[in-house]
Amino acid sequence: MSAEKARILIVDDEVNICRSCLKILAKTDNYETAYALNGYDALKMMDENPFDAVITDLKMSSLGGMEVLRRVRESYPETKVIVITGYATVSSSVEVMKMGASDYLPKPFTPDELRAVVRQVLADRDICLQNRCLMNRQGGGKAVSHQLIGNSPKIKKVITMVQKVAPTDATVLLYGESGTGKELVARAIHANSPRKVFFAVDCGTLSDNLLESELFGHSRGAFTGAHKDKDGIFTLADGGTVFLDEISNISMEVQGKLLRFLETREFLPLGSACLRKVNVRLIFATNRHLQEMVAEGRFREDFYYRIYVYPINLPPLRERRHDILPIAYHFLKQFCEAMGKHISGFDDNAVNRLTEYRWPGNVRQLRNVMERAVILCEKDRISLKELPLLGDVSEIGQLLEYVPSTNEELKKIRKEIREKAVEKVEKIFILNALAKSNWNVSLAARETGMQRSNFQKMMKQYGITGKMKSEG
């Protein structure tokens, strides 16, 4: 959320409920709260100074919550509305959500439940405002070059680390999941340094011999097919930066040669007896846990500690929810310019899907999705129709869609799928037991053969309050 205090209005004809909500929310510094004892007063207060969120009771003697919801949504579309009620039913919850309520909270609720709902609703509001701001800005401003996009604390930390290390000659190790933008960060470091040329090498696509030849160069006759001398990247990059991606894939022998190069900045081209010395800065990157590989004997310990001078961790996109839309708009502008299209932005449903999706392929996957969406879009805004591959927003569905590229990623995905599948089964198990026992927690626990305390613990784990009963 923004630094300004979010303004929240509580509407309930029971003054004790209003004061209780004020007390609960007062413990959060970023909220400025007020209350009204009926819908008419609430709307007057909105006219004087609109609130960011309204928490309204459903049943009130003077202008009920349903009418408050309708009028607020009509006159103040940016204001989020949370409906609370002591008469919770499935049909009433569906009705208020259809009318545009952001959430629905049955009474009695705990302080943590209220704070969690308010936090989520205000976060969603920030996303909507962010989308509107980015849409208004679309088409203006200069193109982004070597820039890390976003304002989340995690990406700000990366940007700060880049700014500090860029002017130096220090060796940098970038680590993070596939698609998090390691090469982009490497280019940002280079672009903010006094160095001249930049070379990027994907170590995962080259055999040992070919990698050595590419990096160090070779003399004529060094191996079959070496008909003439060839300068390697280290020679060509003298005074510049070399980015070595997927460093975990190189052999122990090549690791040893790189270790010697790091210590002396000297190397022997293949088949040559003449040492060469260059001024090259190295930036390494990996999507694997090098320390684990060291422990397993698959990565040299001395080489690991030599490259672990200035490590920068690149967070996955799912941990940077507020950065998703700025990045999406950056790619939208890029592809619109390339394809000669005019698309202003995303509709609300597309925004929700983009920001709720888990993005297992990170920024690279988002880029591909944006390119596909621009190709498909025939209107002014991108809708769910142009995001067909984001159809399943469940975490298991997204994990199944993602194709791992290494054994390390495969093991990680397997573990996550198992954990998410267990969570899904457990949640269905709890809901089914509660439904069979008419939401009587003690009876549900007894019927399933669980202790009541354990049953309640699982309910709390999955945010199941046990207060909402279906009609009939």
Write the topology of this structure.
Elements: E1 6-11, H1 15-26, E2 31-36, H2 39-48, E3 53-57, H3 65-75, E4 80-85, H4 90-98, E5 103-106, H5 111-137, H6 153-165, E6 172-175, H7 182-191, E7 198-202, H8 208-216, E8 217-218, E9 230-231, H9 233-236, E10 241-245, H10 252-264, E11 266-267, E12 276-277, E13 281-286, H11 290-295, H12 301-307, E14 310-313, H13 324-339, E15 345-346, H14 348-356, H15 362-376, E16 381-382, H16 395-401, H17 407-436, H18 441-448, H19 452-461
Parallel strand pairs: 1-2, 1-3, 3-4, 4-5, 6-13, 6-14, 7-10, 10-13, 15-16
Antiparallel strand pairs: 8-9, 11-12
What is the compact description of this entry?
The chain is an alpha/beta fold and 472 residues long. It is 48% helix and 13% strand.
Model description:
It contains 19 helices and 16 strands. With 472 residues, the chain is an alpha/beta fold. It folds into 4 domains: 132 residues, Response regulator (Rossmann fold, 3-Layer(aba) Sandwich), CATH 3.40.50; 161 residues, P-loop containing nucleotide triphosphate hydrolases (Rossmann fold, 3-Layer(aba) Sandwich); 82 residues, Helicase, Ruva Protein, domain 3 (Orthogonal Bundle); 46 residues, Arc Repressor Mutant, subunit A. The strands form 5 sheets. It has a 5-stranded parallel sheet with strand order 2-1-3-4-5, sandwiched between helices. The radius of gyration is 28 Å and the shape is elongated. The C terminus is likely disordered.
How confident overall, as mean pLDDT? 85
Number of helices: 19
Q: How far apart, in Å, are the first and last alpha carbons?
A: 41 Å
Percentage of residues in helical conformation = 40-55%
Largest sheet: 5 strands, parallel
CATH class of the largest domain: Alpha Beta
Strand share of the residues? 5-15%
Order of strands in the sheet with most strands: 2-1-3-4-5
What name goes with the CATH superfamily of the largest domain? Answer: P-loop containing nucleotide triphosphate hydrolases
Gyration radius over CA: 28 Å
What's the overall geometry?
Answer: elongated
- Corresponding CATH architecture of the largest domain: 3-Layer(aba) Sandwich
Total number of domains: 4
The number of distinct β-strands equals 16
Q: Helices and strands: which structural class? A: alpha/beta
Report the uncertain regions: 139-146, 467-472
**CATH fold label of the largest domain:** Rossmann fold
